[in-house]
Design goal:
Number of strands: 2
Order of helices and strands: HHHEHEH
Shape: elongated
Strand order of the largest sheet: 1-2
Helix content: 40-55%
Structural class: mainly alpha
Radius of gyration: 17 Å
Largest sheet: 2 strands, parallel
Strand content: 5-15%
């Protein structure tokens, strides 16, 4: 619901369960915390024994509303916060949606 409130009624494309399973499929991920608070606390980090907290550097919502500056304050102070550099500037949910819509006619003609 939080994502839909920020990005609109048709996003995210995958539901929470699908997104969690996709992230868990990554060999570098040990656990996904579902329903984590917006502001990450020391208690959350110690309770789940989090050694690294990662945020991607690409965000489609950066221009919509500024993030609460306290969001990653504690993980940064604890030295566990990392920014994951994106490899492809064209790889975003918005671009994928546009590619699907653009290819729809070709798909329907083919099938």
């Amino acid at each position: 619901e939080d994502v839909q409130a920020r990005r609109g009624p048709h996003l995210p494309i995958m539901n929470l369960h699908e997104r969690s399973l996709s992230v868990l499929a990554c060999k570098y991920v040990d656990e996904v915390v579902i329903g984590s608070p917006t502001i990450i606390t020391r208690d959350l980090i110690t309770t789940f024994n989090i050694s690294v907290l990662v945020r991607g550097d690409t965000s489609e919502t950066d221009g919509m509303a500024p993030l609460d500056p306290r969001r990653y304050e504690v993980p940064k102070a604890m030295g566990v916060f990392r920014v994951l550099q994106g490899h492809s500037p064209n790889m975003s949910a918005r671009n994928i949606i546009h590619r699907i819509v653009d290819k729809r006619a070709a798909f329907e003609a083919r099938n």
